Amino acid sequence: MSVAAELGKITLSTDAETPVDTLFALVAGDMQAVDALIHARMSSAVSLIPELSRHLIDSGGKRLRPMLTLAAAHICDYVGSHHLNLAAAVEFIHTATLLHDDVVDASALRRGKVAANVVWGNKPSILVGDFLFSRAFELMVETGDLSVLGILARASSVIAEGEVMQLRSANNLGTTEADYLAVVTAKTAALFAASAEAGGALADAPLTIVGALRDYGLNLGIAFQLTDDTLDYLGGEQQMGKAVGDDFREAKVTLPVILALQRASEPQRRFWQRVIEAGEQSDRDLDTAIQIVRETGAIGESQARARAYADSAITAASRLPSQEMTTALIDIAEFCVARAF
Amino acid sequence: MSVAAELGKITLSTDAETPVDTLFALVAGDMQAVDALIHARMSSAVSLIPELSRHLIDSGGKRLRPMLTLAAAHICDYVGSHHLNLAAAVEFIHTATLLHDDVVDASALRRGKVAANVVWGNKPSILVGDFLFSRAFELMVETGDLSVLGILARASSVIAEGEVMQLRSANNLGTTEADYLAVVTAKTAALFAASAEAGGALADAPLTIVGALRDYGLNLGIAFQLTDDTLDYLGGEQQMGKAVGDDFREAKVTLPVILALQRASEPQRRFWQRVIEAGEQSDRDLDTAIQIVRETGAIGESQARARAYADSAITAASRLPSQEMTTALIDIAEFCVARAF
Predict the structure, then answer these.
(1) What is the ipTM of this complex?
(2) Confidence class of residue B61 from pLDDT cuts 50, 70 and 90?
(3) Pick from B46, B100, B157: which is nearest to A126 by CB?
(4) Alpha carbon of A319 to those of A75, A208, A247, A312, B143: distances in Å?
(5) Domains in chain B, ordered, with CATH?
(6) Are the beta carbons of A160 and B124 separated by less than 8 Å?
(7) A-B Cβ pairs (cutoff 8 Å, strict)
(8) Rounded CA gap, A135 and B230, in Å?
């Protein structure tokens, strides 16, 4: 799901305007054009392709990644219309990875809707993902800019590497913090980084600015994923669209688990071996897990790590030309982790 | 599987040098460099990626698609080394589609070996396919040539469209000859066409030459697939690596079936409905099917169609500069259908 949607659904008050909404307002005209382009380019004489694509693309993701691309291009004073192609391409790459992810994870839900693999089966999800991925490259070719093609092609292979790495850490308590960070960086942060970087590269911005955009996206992506993984064990008053304990029930080895394991007593270690490694869980285990990650300080430490990445994102953004959109990027990084406190 | 392997395995005499071998000898130096590049670029710190890639890439495909790219570049007097990148990219795209194909078809075998999806499971096959596909675009970015990127990106989305189309025709006797040809053109011929066309485009050849290369590849690809689908019902003395009746047992609606159905008596129509639509087959049904496609003339007609596409490929090749490699291309088109007679 797009981070915007993910951020949106955990807004503490549903009426509050988030920094994501603020950025959206600043690029609203462009986003309308991107939306039109996305719908035009997911069309195909093979009707199942737009049908399945629409199911996911129109499911309420707020498209933070293409917004990063547009904001980056504007901050770098880009003149032209190719940033629209680039933003649509970024969303297509993201959508393609979600389709393949849901097949790999056998997901039942995506963005609160029945996942495409459940509605149409795995085969069309794999193939429509391939289609959208190819269309992303067609859109980028139209920008006439080889540097953005290089940035997104590289990010795409890194994402795939991250996904393969992640397979190895399923049910695997031997997963180290370094393994976890490598997966998060590749699987989630690489596309955030590329989305922002490519917007600056398209505008032919100086390398220092393009580098700052990349650093911003990379650190924002890591901060976002760490926060998301932490929230899975928080719950309580913070009502989220995503149910507390989803990762736990899927026996995912996320940062709270890794840190709790480092601090585990012998009975706690046996607990994690049973619920994560063996995947044997009963009704009360989630409560126990939440209690352990809190008492061992694993949650506090996870939040602190996320905070540090958000701070790095803010530092990177402060190297960008000062303007309204840059302020929105800084506020988004702040908002991204604030939700976990 | 690469066409070379497919062609190779059905050589009537195993000692005979085929036109594919002749072309290979003409580009042997380049192919060695392409092979090195392929192995260098499928490397990853995530060891499962090169492991799984190697399983398929080193399984004896003779790589006709990258050979077409190299031959096209040479015929157009290309000077430089980027044709090697392009040829490696073409093979990566082909390998990625095979990996996804085998997941979609739940294939047990590929190139006579246990398929990757069986050895490692569907998840790594999907994700390593994505990785190789992304690497293909990275390789193409290095050519610095947007036109070849456009040609291959377009071909990739057409291939995905063809694969989705094909899902609809499974067990579906309503599949028309036009449907079948659309699938074959998109799924098989588009990459042959793009492989040849891109080699010419990289060399900045005149549009008429690039067009001839494209026409050659497209028609060769269709001729090849039609022949392959016909051979599935031939058998007899012509011993092939692929077992006779594979398509039949998978209830695929290929050209021989479509043509036989057009000519079917009422009992024959019921036969096809049972074995293809309902998928209910017993031991003697393959023999009956072979008898029907022969007696109705469906096989002869399928062969004639394949022959016509091969002739179109030869006509297209005759518009190319006359040289040894062009002769090899013509001989390959000839060989491609000759195996079915």
Answers:
(1) 0.91
(2) confident
(3) B100
(4) 12, 8, 36, 11, 33
(5) 3-338 (1.10.600.10)
(6) no
(7) 125
(8) 33
